[in-house]
């Protein structure tokens, strides 16, 4: 199989479960959870089912293309189902089955792992799913987002696509994976990892990032005041990515870290509250 | 009769399970007691997917005689002795003959009434009543909601099985109805199983890859460990915590064994075992103290026929070890001293500044401690150590495995050629991590550990922190306990009060509360930990209180006083002496303090008492200076005969104010002397109790 074969199968599986297949969101995010297709839709009472592939950018995880399994950008397959179905664990097992994994020959475990994203004021309870010792999925029942208690509760299933494909292909090196039959992961990604590692760790202009952060934050607040919540949220995502870049440049002390994350969260919490106001929902 | 309850859930965390099972045991026992249902046995068992209660209980609540009261006697029975209409009406409404009514006395007076036998409820009925409340009352460290329910539990509940005497008890809970069905292993044998009793339940589950009894799982794991390691003559690097956690995480324990390339054995055993434990939760294998290139892991599966599980784990572990080796080699490229110089950029605490600032304070604290603890020869080494000890916080290894802090610093220092005393002190300076954790072996490590901890305690309290319940982000309880443990076990003669003064002065203008208020807060906190330590060791509450009377400036002295009290409490002089001290204290309670004038001592008995006091005092002080607390306490018992005579023959409260105050002053001197040893008045005497 190949990575694209993998996510085609997952698309197919979850589409049959009634999920809307969302296109990848066009902003840098640290996790699939952060895109509007998850963030806004887990708020409020409307049922929702969505699945999508989302690149996750984590600048500090870059290794100049030299580490066989750490990269500053990886791909997640994100599923949200709201409200969480009673048999969601069984459905998830079936999705692994459709990838050709015969679970009876393996050791699959749901290992306690609660999840939290202080930046978007969200936390949930659940597991990391371990397959023969490899973490392949994060499985979470969302309890809060944007600082608000969620009702009904959504379940989030996030597959780590490269991990899963390495498992399926029995490969030890991420760059040895096939994206398609013709194209390898190395061809597509190696140069990108190398250059972005240099950028993330050495070349990103701290001064520029700091001033962009400030301006973007101000813009987000201005947009919130105008009730333009979706554009405001986009600016929060931009802030979050700028923050991650500053962090990988080593330009954030521990106090500042808490402070900056708090600033973004304050914005996001305002957005969530306004989004649920009767006027904002229509 | 047999009662079997199984609550199936999605995978609950190991840390929730033990507590959930013991809560179930307690609550069912309590509720059966309240409902008066006889319980012959009751136990709980389970896995991450099932909470099971198994009991042998009575079929019914026993029948009970109840008293039904009607109208008051004077209303019910007329002057002519006939029943009134009120009485007739009551009998009719209760469906009994009026002749069967009798006069009963209650606390409110005499009434007409009758006794009737109330049939006990069936146990099934009681179960349906108590079950929902019990389930709702379970508490977890963190609970969750799911779907469209407001109910919270550890994880979603999937199925209820409830049998009493082989019959289904119909429970309803949050949309679930109980039955006689359970399910086998979620992945390997997800069959629906119909069950009539525990024996069948247990057996069917076993056939379907579930060992429901945790102790049986433990035995199976240990046996499999042994079988795997017999040939190598090796053993598992003991990790009770990990075993305990895994024991609950799996329903069908299968031990797998794998290996990793020899080249990783260059890594220290601390790093290897941590890399194995974190993430994959593998056990390392050792022979003697040497790490072997093998690991053991626990799978939740009946078998590994295609070797997928073992080889999968090998692949993942290899990648992790590759990472660890990358960290190790990279970290070693930078000298510790160079890293330490960058600690100014790493925040320790918002108000207390960076780790660089902390290390500067630690240098002064270890230097102070070296002077006090006769460790001046190594002072230079210690100060150097204090300046390096936090450097490993900047290493990639500690960023990846935070629990290796300190240890990595020590290991890197060794690789970089620092002296043994420096390496070991850095390595050990986070010890002890708890009541049962060992204290540092080396004196330098112990000193650095005390310095680090006192700085945190004083700093965090001094900038306005409040410790309450579970909120203790800087581990102040653990740190305080650690200092006490080190002082006691190392037998350090160290003034805690002056150490606090020193640490407070070093925090200086960063304090947000006054130094005296801070010292008071710290001392109260220390006292609570001292209590905790000695109570855990089984000392009597009142003896601890008495031994704390003279304070706990020198903890090892306080301990010696306590031990002495504990040994002497059975001696025949003990009780009379305590009673005597209490008497003295009572007399002095209302009296002003006066100076003793020996020329005003008139009576023979008071002169004798004074001369006995002089001699005993001298002896006691001599003994105390040598730390001989038991001997000093025995010595002080000798005050009793002259004091007895004094009380028998001399009146303290005489008219003459001068003489009276002088006698009170003599007693005050006695009390002062006793209070150097203990606050004896705190001790509870059994004869007093009665």
Short description:
The complex is a heterodimer of chains A (282) and B (690). Chain A has 282 residues and is of the alpha+beta class.
How would you describe this structure to a colleague?
- Chain A has helices spanning 3-16, 36-42, 88-98, 161-169, 185-203, 206-225, 229-248, 254-276, 278-281; strands at residues 20-21, 48-57, 73-82, 108-112, 115-117, 122-131, 134-145, 148-149, 155-160.
- By secondary structure, chain A is of the alpha+beta class.
- Chain A has 2 domains: 3-200, BirA Bifunctional Protein, domain 2 (2-Layer Sandwich), CATH 3.30.930; 205-281, Up-down Bundle (Methane Monooxygenase Hydroxylase, Chain G, domain 1), CATH 1.20.58.
- Chain A is globular, with a radius of gyration of 19 Å.
- In chain B, the strands form 6 sheets. Chain B has a 5-stranded antiparallel sheet.
- Helices cover 50% and strands 14% of the residues of chain B.
Radius of gyration of chain A: 19 Å
How many helix segments of chain B? Answer: 27
CATH superfamily of the largest domain in chain A: Bira Bifunctional Protein, Domain 2
What would you call the structural class of chain A?
alpha+beta
Oligomeric state = heterodimer
Encode the helix/strand succession of chain A as letters: HEHEEHEEEEEEHHHHHH
Poorly predicted ranges of chain B: none
Helical proportion of chain B?
A: 40-55%
The coarse overall form of chain B would be flat
Q: Order of strands across the widest beta sheet of chain B?
A: 2-3-1-7-8
The CATH architecture term of the largest domain in chain A is 2-Layer Sandwich
Distance between the termini of chain A: 44 Å
């Amino acid at each position: 199989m190949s990575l694209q074969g993998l996510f085609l199968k997952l698309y197919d599986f979850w589409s049959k479960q009634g999920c809307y297949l969302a296109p990848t969101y066009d902003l840098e995010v640290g996790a699939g959870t952060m895109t509007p297709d998850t963030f806004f839709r887990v708020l409020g009472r409307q049922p929702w089912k969505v699945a999508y592939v989302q690149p996750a950018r984590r600048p500090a995880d870059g290794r100049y293309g030299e580490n066989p399994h750490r990269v500053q950008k990886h791909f997640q397959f994100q599923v949200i189902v709201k409200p969480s179905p009673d048999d969601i664990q069984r459905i998830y097992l079936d999705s692994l089955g459709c990838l050709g994994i015969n679970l009876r020959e393996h050791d699959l475990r749901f290992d306690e792992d609660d999840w939290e994203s202080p930046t978007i004021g969200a936390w949930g309870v659940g597991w990391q799913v371990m397959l023969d010792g490899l973490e392949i999925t994060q499985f979470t029942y969302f309890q809060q987002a944007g600082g608000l208690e969620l009702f009904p509760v959504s379940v989030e299933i996030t597959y780590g696509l490269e991990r899963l494909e390495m498992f399926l292909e029995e490969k030890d090196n991420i760059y040895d994976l096939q994206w398609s039959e013709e194209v390898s992961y190395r061809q597509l990604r190696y140069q990108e990892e190398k250059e972005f590692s240099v950028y993330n760790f050495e070349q990103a202009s701290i001064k520029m990032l700091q001033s962009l952060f400030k301006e973007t934050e101000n813009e987000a607040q201005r947009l919130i005041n105008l009730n333009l919540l979706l554009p405001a949220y986009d600016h929060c995502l931009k802030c979050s990515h700028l923050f991650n870049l500053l962090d990988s440049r080593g330009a954030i002390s521990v106090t500042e870290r808490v402070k900056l994350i708090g600033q973004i969260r304050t914005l996001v919490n305002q957005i969530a509250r306004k989004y649920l106001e009767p006027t904002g929902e229509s | 009769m047999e009662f079997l309850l199984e609550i199936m859930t999605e995978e609950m965390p190991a840390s929730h399970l033990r507590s959930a099972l013991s809560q179930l045991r307690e609550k069912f026992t309590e509720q059966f007691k309240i409902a008066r249902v006889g319980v012959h046995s009751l136990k709980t068992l389970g896995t991450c997917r099932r909470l099971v209660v198994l009991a042998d209980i009575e079929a019914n609540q026993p029948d009970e005689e109840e008293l039904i009261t009607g109208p008051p006697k004077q209303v019910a029975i007329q002057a002519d002795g006939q029943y009134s209409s009120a009485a007739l009406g009551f009998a009719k409404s209760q469906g009994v003959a009026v002749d069967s009514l009798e006069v009963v006395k209650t606390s409110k007076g005499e009434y007409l009434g009758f006794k009737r036998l109330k049939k006990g409820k069936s146990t099934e009925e009681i179960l349906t009543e108590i079950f929902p409340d019990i389930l709702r009352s379970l508490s977890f460290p963190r609970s969750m909601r799911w779907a469209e329910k407001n109910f919270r539990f550890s994880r979603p509940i999937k199925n209820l099985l409830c049998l009493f005497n082989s019959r289904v008890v119909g429970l309803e809970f949050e949309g679930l109805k109980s039955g006689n069905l359970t399910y086998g292993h979620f992945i390997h044998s997800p069959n629906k199983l119909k069950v009539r009793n525990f024996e069948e339940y247990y057996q069917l589950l076993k056939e379907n890859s579930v060992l429901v009894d945790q102790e049986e799982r433990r035995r199976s794991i240990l046996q499999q460990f042994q079988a795997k390691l017999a040939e190598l003559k090796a053993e598992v690097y003991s990790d009770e915590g990990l075993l305990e956690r895994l024991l609950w995480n799996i329903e069908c324990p299968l031990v797998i064994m794998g290996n990793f390339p020899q080249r990783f054995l260059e890594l220290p055993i601390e790093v290897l075992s941590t890399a194995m434990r974190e993430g994959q939760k593998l056990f390392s294998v050792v022979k003697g103290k040497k790490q072997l290139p093998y690991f053991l892991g626990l799978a939740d599966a009946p078998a590994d026929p295609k070797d997928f599980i073992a080889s999968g784990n090998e692949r993942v572990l290899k990648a992790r070890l590759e990472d660890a080796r990358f960290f190790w080699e990279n970290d070693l490229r930078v000298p510790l001293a160079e890293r330490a110089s960058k600690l100014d950029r790493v925040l320790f605490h918002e108000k207390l500044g960076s780790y660089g600032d902390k290390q500067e304070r630690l240098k002064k604290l270890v230097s102070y401690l070296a002077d006090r603890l006769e460790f001046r020869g190594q002072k230079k080494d210690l100060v150097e150590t204090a300046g390096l000890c936090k450097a490993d916080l900047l290493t990639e290894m500690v960023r990846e495995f935070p629990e290796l802090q300190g240890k990595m610093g020590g290991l890197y220092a060794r690789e970089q050629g620092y002296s043994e005393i420096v390496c070991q002190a850095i390595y050990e300076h986070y010890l002890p991590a708890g009541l049962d954790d060992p204290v540092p072996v080396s004196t330098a490590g112990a000193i650095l550990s005390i310095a680090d901890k006192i700085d945190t305690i004083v700093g965090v309290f001094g900038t306005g922190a409040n410790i309450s319940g579970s909120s203790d982000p800087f581990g102040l309880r653990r740190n305080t306990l650690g200092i006490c443990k080190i002082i006691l076990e190392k037998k350090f003669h160290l003034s805690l009060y002056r150490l606090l003064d020193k640490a407070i002065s070093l925090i200086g203008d960063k304090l947000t509360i006054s130094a005296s208020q801070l010292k008071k807060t710290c001392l109260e906190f220390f006292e609570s930990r001292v209590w905790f330590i000695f109570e855990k060791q089984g000392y009597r509450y009142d003896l601890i209180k008495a031994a704390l009377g003279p304070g706990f400036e020198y903890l090892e002295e306080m301990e010696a006083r306590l031990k002495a009290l504990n040994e002497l409490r059975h001696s025949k002089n003990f009780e009379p002496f305590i009673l005597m001290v209490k008497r003295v204290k009572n007399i002095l309670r209302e009296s002003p303090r006066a100076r003793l004038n020996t020329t005003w001592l008139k009576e023979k008995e008071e002169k004798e008492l004074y001369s006995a006091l002089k001699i005993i005092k001298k002896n006691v002080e001599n003994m105390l200076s040598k730390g001989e607390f038991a001997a000093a306490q025995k010595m002080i018992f000798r005050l009793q005969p002259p004091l007895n005579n004094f009380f028998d023959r001399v009146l303290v409260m005489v008219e003459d104010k001068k003489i009276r105050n002088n006698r009170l002053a003599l007693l005050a001197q006695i009390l002062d002397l006793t209070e150097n040893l203990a606050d004896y008045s705190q001790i509870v005497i059994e004869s007093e109790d009665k």
